[in-house]
Amino acid sequence: MALPISGTINDNQAGILRPRKTATPLIINGDMAIAQRGTSKTGLTASGTGYHTIDRFMSLLSSAGTWTDTQDTDVPTGQGFVSSFKTDCTTADASLSAGDFRLLQIRNEGQNFQVLKHGTSDAESVTVAFWVKSNKTGTYTLELEKADSNRSISQTYTIDSANTWEKKVLSFAGDTSATIPNDNSNEFTIGFWLGAGTDWTSGTMNTSWATKTSANRVSSSQTNLADSTSNYINITGVQLEVGSFDTNSIPDFQFEDRATSLNRCHRYFYRVYSNNPYSVFSAGYSSSSTKHLSCFNFPTTMRALPTCSSNGSFQVIEGGSSRSVTGVAFDGNSRSLDNARIDVSMSGGTTGNGGMFRAANDTDAYIEADAEL
């Protein structure tokens, strides 16, 4: 027998009843829980562009002060988060030159965003939600951009209360004019602008999808977070939902278990640390008295052929003895999306002997594979 239903459904209930159009979060590591490279990076300045702490969260700047990026434990109360991304100004730039900027980005593969149906009359709107905290109130710019079609759309939000966690929810129309290529390249980017010179702010900000012109990317009211060494910003709980939502109807943040989130991050970057003295990285054999070959296996298929590198002190255990390592290389012709050959230069080996490539008495040694966007 059907149960009678009476009364009205408010926006929040409607948001709960409306199913998501994606089974997994479109934003990887939006809760900032994974930080394979470490929890802090200091001295970020003009050459500081790159991934330094939080996985999938890129730090970009051009002569806009000096910064420290950290995986922080300051989070909004009662929301389930345990980490946030924090960037803290350590050397100020109160008067940005025209081309200066401070920007944080999340870069995404086009093939994961086909659900948006861009370039068709059915293009989907999207909503970006996140938690933010800063000592510096004012206007900030959030930008979506598509590299292949050179198009962007921006919107402002306001940090209203200093040193207080606030949730922001911003909806953007779909782009009916240009597709998102169905490939593994950076085709859909979310950008958090924290400061920008006049090269980026002097035009009319694109509030609808349009050609990405530098002067039209950022609001002329954009706050300069670089103007004092007291300034910082924390961000966590970044989510992108298909459809238009407001603060009442936005679905709750979609948490993933740590193993799933880490595995998704490994598609772009994988670092394995020694953690303990003499930790073993791989097993192989001596192809000559001065060369040990082994295989660096990745835990998941990587996005593209990775760049592999190493850092720290190493040795080879072969024939029951340790062999001094003078160099570690990763053979370019023997890489795949799933593994790479490690070429270790050593002394005193015996051709044909099996052995292990491991850290020396070094708890911070590591090898890594990087296929970031």
Describe the protein.
- The protein has 373 residues and is mainly β.
- It has two domains: 11-266, Sandwich (Jelly Rolls), CATH 2.60.120; 269-370, Immunoglobulin-like, CATH 2.60.40.
- Helix content is 5%, strand content 41%.
- It has three helices and 21 strands.
- The chain has helices at 11-17, 198-201, 258-266, and strands at residues 40-44, 58-62, 66-72, 84-91, 101-109, 126-134, 138-146, 151-159, 166-172, 186-196, 210-211, 232-242, 269-273, 280-288, 291-297, 307-311, 314-318, 321-330, 339-346, 354-359, 366-370.
- Strands 1-3-4-12-6-9 form a six-stranded antiparallel sheet, with no helix packed on it. Strands 2-5-10-7-8-11 form a six-stranded antiparallel sheet.
- Strand 18 (321-330) and strand 19 (339-346) form a beta hairpin.
- The longest helix is centred in the C-terminal third of the chain and has 9 residues, at 258-266.
- The protein is globular, with a radius of gyration of 24 Å.
- The N and C termini lie far apart (54 Å).
- Residues 1-17 have low confidence and may be disordered.
